[in-house]
């Protein structure tokens, strides 16, 4: 039998959050990898060397996929030029040391990919009003979460502990959904196109008709419904949530999915506070693998259905009034196609793209208007642009 839901949900303590960041150190922090200063030195020594663009070598992108000849070069000592080339051949996932992406990374990309990249690289250039809007939205979401459960801080000691918290939060909502209840802030994760994705569903409830309904709350600074382009971005976001959630309850989130993509260790002992929190929730676990096994069994054996209905509620931040509700149609093939297109950027298979000319109006309110390379290239002429035309 599945345990009763705990009265609280866990979040990492401040120290734990630092541990999460440390765990995200990737290829650039490996011993032997070039620092930016070393790279600059090499570039100065070999000015004629052509740097590879992501994906144009036709070679695999991750060091573990390097062909045999690359290993022999490593053994015999790389030339400076080879080191520069390998550094330049990093995919965006590697460049930003990411082992996974968030659903919102992809949905933001569907608004303007170039803007999403600038947002990651230059967050300090974001307009202050955008920052205020985002922070207010976060506070409203937290307040709604606190309506249904408490949030407790749990100290984490490893990256496995940080993921254990997400899994415990997921485990805690399964019995609630089985009993026909309503849950908020539900973590979902899975793999699309060989990239690990994670997201947080705002709310899952059963409708009067008994259908499982996803409700996403979008708060707005202005007291009217968003444009079609904004809605398109939000539609894609909730479709990705459904895609991931359905795969989870259909038993596709096997333990090795997490270990192979996030490089988590099955045998890693869980920290004391994690084990205590798990115990209170009715789970006896010692290592991370125990928890993964529990997650897989609980998801697979539960009779939770796939999501039947996707709804987005838009409300005005200041007056807290509902502006309108959109019902979103889920078309799996289209969702997969879009995800494939956006993930191609992250995997280094194509260059970053900005908005097409018919959507240039988005640039007027963009924080990166003054520095945007995409706009500069467009102004120089079509022959300066690289990459295929953006898919629709
Ligand atoms: Fe995208 Fe336009 Fe902003 Fe450039 S200026 S990042 S193309 S919205």
Automatic annotation (TrEMBL):
Nucleus recorded as keyword: yes
Names of required cofactors: Mg(2+); [4Fe-4S] cluster
Signal peptide positions on this chain: none
Region (Disordered): 1-68
InterPro entries hit by this protein: EXOV, PDDEXK-like_dom_sf
Keywords: 4Fe-4S, Cytoplasm, DNA damage, DNA repair, DNA-binding, Exonuclease, Hydrolase, Iron, Iron-sulfur, Magnesium, Metal-binding, Nuclease, Nucleus
GO molecular function term, any single one: single-stranded DNA 5'-3' DNA exonuclease activity
GO biological process: interstrand cross-link repair
Record keyword Thylakoid present: no
Pfam family, one: Exo5
Protein localization: Cytoplasm, Cytosol; Nucleus
One cellular component term from this protein's GO annotations in UniProt: cytosol
Family: Belongs to the EXO5 family.
Protein name: Exonuclease V
Record gene name: EXO5
């Amino acid at each position: 039998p599945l345990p009763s839901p705990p009265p609280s949900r866990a979040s990492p303590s401040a120290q734990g959050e630092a541990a999460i960041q440390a765990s995200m150190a990737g290829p650039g922090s490996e011993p032997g990898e070039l620092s930016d200063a070393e790279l600059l030195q090499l570039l100065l020594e070999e000015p004629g060397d052509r740097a590879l663009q992501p994906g144009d070598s036709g070679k695999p992108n991750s060091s573990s996929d390097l062909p045999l000849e690359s290993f022999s070069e490593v053994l015999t000592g790389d030339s400076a030029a080879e080191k520069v080339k390998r550094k330049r051949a990093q995919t965006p996932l590697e460049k930003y040391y990411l082992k996974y992406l968030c659903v919102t990374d992809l949905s933001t990309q569907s608004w303007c990919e170039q803007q999403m990249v600038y947002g990651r690289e230059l967050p300090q250039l974001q307009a202050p009003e955008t920052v205020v809007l985002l922070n207010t939205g976060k506070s409203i979401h937290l307040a709604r979460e606190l309506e249904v459960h408490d949030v407790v801080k749990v100290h984490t000691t490893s990256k496995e502990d940080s993921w254990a918290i997400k899994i415990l939060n997921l485990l805690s909502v399964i019995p609630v959904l089985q009993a026909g209840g309503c849950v908020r802030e539900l973590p979902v994760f899975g793999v699309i196109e060989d990239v690990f994705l994670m997201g947080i569903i705002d709310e899952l409830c059963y409708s009067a008709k008994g259908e499982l309904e996803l409700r996403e709350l979008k708060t707005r600074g202005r007291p009217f419904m968003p444009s079609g382009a904004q809605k398109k971005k939000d539609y894609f976001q909730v479709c990705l949530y459904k895609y991931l959630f359905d795969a989870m309850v259909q038993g596709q989130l096997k333990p090795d999915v997490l270990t192979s993509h996030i490089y988590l260790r099955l045998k890693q002992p869980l920290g004391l506070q994690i084990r205590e929190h798990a115990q209170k929730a009715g789970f006896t676990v010692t290592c991370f693998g125990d928890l993964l096994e529990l997650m897989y069994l609980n998801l697979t054996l539960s009779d939770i259905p796939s999501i039947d209905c996707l709804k987005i509620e838009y409300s005005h931040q200041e007056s807290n009034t509902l502006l309108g509700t959109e019902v979103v149609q889920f078309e799996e093939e289209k969702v997969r196609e879009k995800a494939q297109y956006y993930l191609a950027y992250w995997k280094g298979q194509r260059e970053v793209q900005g908005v097409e000319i018919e959507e240039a109006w988005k640039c007027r309110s963009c924080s990166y208007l003054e520095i945007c390379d995409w706009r500069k290239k467009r102004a120089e002429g079509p022959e300066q642009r690289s990459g295929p035309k953006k898919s629709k």
